[in-house]
Automatic annotation (TrEMBL):
<dbReference type="InterPro" id="IPR003593">
    <property type="entry name" value="AAA+_ATPase"/>
</dbReference>
<keyword id="KW-0742">SOS response</keyword>
<keyword id="KW-0235">DNA replication</keyword>
<keyword id="KW-0234">DNA repair</keyword>
<feature type="domain" description="AAA+ ATPase">
    <location>
        <begin position="23"/>
        <end position="381"/>
    </location>
</feature>
<protein>
    <recommendedName>
        <fullName>DNA replication and repair protein RecF</fullName>
    </recommendedName>
</protein>
<dbReference type="InterPro" id="IPR042174">
    <property type="entry name" value="RecF_2"/>
</dbReference>
<dbReference type="Pfam" id="PF02463">
    <property type="entry name" value="SMC_N"/>
</dbReference>
<dbReference type="InterPro" id="IPR018078">
    <property type="entry name" value="DNA-binding_RecF_CS"/>
</dbReference>
<keyword id="KW-0547">Nucleotide-binding</keyword>
<dbReference type="InterPro" id="IPR001238">
    <property type="entry name" value="DNA-binding_RecF"/>
</dbReference>
<dbReference type="InterPro" id="IPR027417">
    <property type="entry name" value="P-loop_NTPase"/>
</dbReference>
<dbReference type="InterPro" id="IPR003395">
    <property type="entry name" value="RecF/RecN/SMC_N"/>
</dbReference>
<keyword id="KW-0963">Cytoplasm</keyword>
<keyword id="KW-0067">ATP-binding</keyword>
<feature type="binding site">
    <location>
        <begin position="31"/>
        <end position="38"/>
    </location>
    <ligand>
        <name>ATP</name>
    </ligand>
</feature>
<comment type="function">
    <text>The RecF protein is involved in DNA metabolism; it is required for DNA replication and normal SOS inducibility. RecF binds preferentially to single-stranded, linear DNA. It also seems to bind ATP.</text>
</comment>
């Protein structure tokens, strides 16, 4: 069992300074809009590999404080010099400390520390900590662009296989380099071939990791109780189609050839028309066969939660690091039966589980099991184990 013992936020989002020592799990955090509920979940998500539940840039995470003047211009920047998130956890191996943030004057990527020691690769955190989450923005997953669905899928892959982040970054760098070179009139074929080789190697590896996760999620199903529908995922990607029938090395050779032959077309369009960066995925209810894009908002939310629960169960298997569950407004769009089923399911997870909402009433099924906290402008009030919430709230 993994437990969150302490969380400290410094100059992060709307928090000047917060020190919180939760008493057990699950924790239900309620408060008005803008009180800092999502910010707190985001802070925890940043301790795991990846860019956090908002995917925000590092400079956006520091606390906004009107009246702070820029040293050179004298203008109000509204920003503090640095920010930090640190936490202490404990698991079967004992306590460990994880921290991330930026110091005053620091540029570039944020720092990661494990037990006070700086890490060269943030993926090293994955040996100790992982996280999955649901946010209200994800309710629009099936109606937004393919890039949004791709980011969602890649977050799930990174949680299972942290090296996937390196493959994605290398593929993105190579793709951007190729786009820049093609935008010029004079191009070196040998140079382009080297970049396309990197696109092929890293791109095929990235798609293969996506394909592996999709297969495992489809085999796992959603929810043993049947409260949430099982979803059938399928990758929409010519690279994935090839990988289903050919060895990876053969697919790499095919992709290199395709990229070479597409240079003139891609130069005119201004971007690569083939590669791992074009992957999309489709989702449908396994029982009814209805595509998620055609389902109601409530059914889409149920399918999404089904995927998250299946993924969390995969990561709870022996030999893996079970994830924190960070659920921002998870009950929105769910009917009463599925709300109760979700909360009952969460009691089985032996990891930190945090849920947020504007009102404690809908969380009544957890009144005897969860710790209820109230947030107001970044300040916590402990409301105990839901003593004030009637059973039928």
């Amino acid at each position: 069992m993994t437990r969150l013992l302490r969380l400290v936020l410094t100059n992060f989002r709307n928090y000047d300074r917060l020190t919180w020592e939760p008493e057990g799990s699950p924790v239900v955090i309620t408060g008005d809009n803008g009180s800092g509920k999502t910010n707190l979940l985001e802070a925890l998500s940043l301790l795991a590999p990846g860019r956090g539940l908002r995917g925000a840039r590092t400079a956006e995470l520091r606390r906004h404080t009107p009246g702070t003047a820029d040293r050179n211009t004298g203008q109000d920047t509204g920003e503090t010099a640095g920010w930090g998130v640190s936490a202490r956890f404990t698991d079967d191996r004992g306590p460990f400390d994880v921290a991330t943030g930026m110091e005053e004057g620091q540029d570039g990527a944020r720092k990661f520390l494990l037990n006070g020691t700086a890490l060269r690769a943030r993926t090293a955190i994955a040996d100790h900590l992982s996280a999955v989450w649901i946010t209200p923005q994800m309710d629009r997953l099936f109606g937004e662009s393919a890039s949004g669905r791709r980011r969602f899928l890649d977050r799930l892959v990174v949680a299972m296989a942290p090296h996937h982040a390196r493959e994605l970054a290398a593929c993105e760098r190579a793709t951007a380099q190729r786009n820049r070179i093609l935008s010029t009139q004079s191009t070196d074929p040998a140079w382009l071939s080297g970049i396309e080789d990197a696109m092929a190697r890293h791109g095929v590896a990235a798609v293969a990791a996506r394909q592996e996760l999709v297969s495992r999620l489809n085999a796992t199903g959603a929810d043993p109780t049947g409260a949430f529908p099982s979803a059938l995922l399928s990758l929409l990607c010519p690279i994935a189609t090839r990988l289903a029938a050919e060895p990876a090395l053969a697919v790499e050779d095919w992709l290199r050839t395709q990229l070479r032959e597409a240079r003139d077309r891609d130069r005119l369009r201004g971007h690569a028309t083939l590669g791992a960066h074009r992957t999309d995925f489709a989702l449908q209810d396994l029982e009814t066969g209805r595509p998620a894009a055609e389902a109601s908002t409530g059914q889409q939310k149920a399918l999404l939660i089904g995927i998250i629960l299946a993924h969390a169960r995969l990561m709870s298997a022996p030999g893996t690091v079970a994830p924190m569950l960070l659920l921002d407004e998870p009950l929105v769009h769910l009917d009463a039966g599925r709300r109760a089923a979700l909360m009952n399911t969460l009691l089985d997870f032996r990891t930190p589980v945090l849920l947020t909402g504007t009102d404690p009433g809908p969380f009544a099924p957890l009144r005897d099991h969860a710790r209820f906290m109230r947030l107001h402008h970044g300040i916590f009030t402990d409301e105990g184990k839901g003593e004030g919430i009637p059973p039928e709230a």
